[in-house]
Amino acid sequence: MTMPRAEALTEPVELDLDELAVGAGPYKLAWRRLRRNRVALAFGGLFFLILLLCLLAPVYSNDIAHIGPDATPYTFKIGNKVEYVISITGIPIGPTWHLGPYFLGADGNNRDVAVRLLYGGRNSLEIGAVATLLTMILATICGLLAGYFRGFTDGIISRTLDVIWAYPAILLGITLSTVLNIHGLGPLHSTTLLSTAFVVGFVYIPYVAKPIRAQVLTLREREFVDAARQQGLSHVRIMMSEILPNLASTIIVFIPLILANAILTEAALTFLGAGVQAPNPSWGTMISDGINAIPAAFHNVLIPGIMLVLAVLSINVFGDGLRDALDPRSKIRVGKEQQ
Amino acid sequence: MARFLARRVLVMVALLFVISLVTFLLFIVALPNGNPAAQIAGRLATPSEVHLISLRYGFDKPIWVQYVKTMGNIFDGTAYSYQSGFNVDQEILAGLPATASLAVGAGFIWLMTSILVGTLAAIRAGRYTDRVLTVLSMIGVSMPPFFFGAILIYYAGYKAGIIPLGGYVPWSQGLGQWIWHLLAPWLTLSILFIGIYSRVLRSTILDVINEDFVRTARAKGLSERQVLTRHILRCSLIPVISLFGLDFAQVIGGGAILTESVYNLHGVGYLAYQAIGRLDTVTLLSIVMLTALAVVVMGAITEIIYAFLDPRVRLQ
Fold it and tell me: How far is CA A163 from the centre of its chain?
C-alpha cells in the first residue's frame, strides 16, 4: 500500500489535469476523488444528519415532544383529545405522525419511542465512537511495536492477537461483558456504557492491528527509515515521526469500517442481554425490547431497526468511498463480525 | 503439502489450548469466590455445605488441576454442567443437527449467490448493474440478523403465514417441514455473508482480469465464457473459499448465536448463549473446543480445495 499520489500515476485511469496540478498533495488528490463520488458524499451527509438529530435529543424532548426518555404517563393529548398511551387491551399506541408527544408511538412501558430513539442513538453512537477510538489507538500501538521490533516482541503481540482473532467475536464479546457486568473492573461495570464500549473496542483490535503490522514491516525497510536511523533518531522517534504518518491513510480508511461494526456489535450484544443494561436506551435495547413484544406493536422493532440500518449503511457507503479515494487498490475490509 | 498441513493443524491445536485456558480463567474470575460450589449449593446453603461440595467436586485443588480434569472430562464425554446437571457432550450432540442443518443450507445459499452476484458485478464493473448490486451488498452487510429475522417473522410469518414463527423440525419428520422451518434462518444468515463475499470476489476478479494468463487464454482463442469460468473464476475463488472455510466452521461451532436465538433454533449457538448467561464454564469450554475442531477440519479441507483450484499451490 503506497501513498495515493503514486497510485494516481500507476492506475490506468484517464488523466485528469487537476490531479496532475503541481503541488497537490496526496490528501488533496484523495479529497478531489471523494468529491466526485456523489453517492458516498450523500450517505456521508445522511450520517451527519442522523448524528445531528441524536445530539439534539434533549431539544426535541424538551421543546417538541415535551416528554422525557424515561417518562411513563398513562394518557396524553393530541390537540384537545385525550388518548391512552397503552390501550385497555394492552397495545401501545402506534405512530401518531403528529408533532408532539408519541410522534412515533409508545413502547411497552408507556415511553415515547421518538424521544428514546434519539437518546438511544446518542448512546449507540457514543459507544461506537469510544470503541472505535480504543480499537484504533491500541491496534496502532500493537501494529507499530510488532512490525517495527519484529522478533520476540512481534511473536508475543501477534500470538495474543491470534487468540483474540480465533475466538468468535460475538462469543468473546458476551463472555467479556458477562464477566464485567458481574464483577466490574475499575470504571467498567454494568451501569455504565463504558464497559460495553470497552468490550466492543477490544474485540476488533486484531482486525486493524494485523494489516498495520504488515504495513510497518514493509515501511521499516524503506530508505527514509534507514536515513532516520543513521541520523541516530531513537526508536520511538522513528515510529512516531517517520512511520506513523505513512500509516495515516490506512488508519483513516479503517475508522468508518470499525465504527459501523462497533455500532452493530453493540446492538448484537445488547440483543443477547450482554450489552447496554436497562434503563439506558440504545438502538440495541429498543430492538430487543420490541422483539419481545412482537405481534402487539411492531413499530417498536421497525423504527429503531431502520434507524440502526440507516446509520450503519451510511457509514459503510461513505467509508467505501473514502477507501476508494485514499487507497484505490487496498484490500481493507472487515470480514467475519457477526452471524 | 502434508508438512504444511501438519504445521497448520499444530498451530490450531496450540491456539485451541490457549483459548480454552483463557475461557476457563475468565470464568473462574467471574464466579463468586472463584468456585462454582456456591452456585451448586444454592441460596440457602451453609458455609460447611459449600465447603463439602467444593471438596467433592475438587474445587479446592489448584486451578491447573481443575483445568486438566475439566478438559479430560470434556474429551472422554463425562463432563456434566454444574448449573444444569446435564451431560455436556450429549447436550451439544442434541443441538448439532439444528446447527448443521442451518450451516449447510445457508452455506450453500450464500456461497452460490455470492459467486453469482460477485461475478456479475465484476463483469459489469462501473455500470448500472454493478452499482445496484454494490448498494444491495452494502445493505446486507449493514443488516443485523436479529432485525432482519424479526422482520421476516412478523411480515412473512405472523402477517402472511408463509413461514413458521421459528423452531426446528428434524429431517426425519419430513423433508418439506425441515426446509419450510429453515428457509427464513438460511436467508437471514446468508444475507450478511453474500454482502461480504460478493464484494471480495468482485475485487479479486477485477485484479485477476489483468493477469498474463488471462490474456494468454484469450489469445488462444477461448470464448469469453471459457476464459471466465476456467481461468478467471477458478483463480478468483481462492480468497472466497478461505473465508468460507472459517465462517462455515464458526457457524457449525455455534457462531450463529444471533440467528439461532431469533428463530428459536435450539442449536449449538443457542446453547452457548444460555451457557454464558448462567456462567456455565464446562458447557462453554466444550462448545469452544467444538468451534476450534471445526476450524481445524475446515482449514484442512480448504487447503485441499486450494490445490485443486490453483495449480501454483500444487507445485510448491
Answer: 23
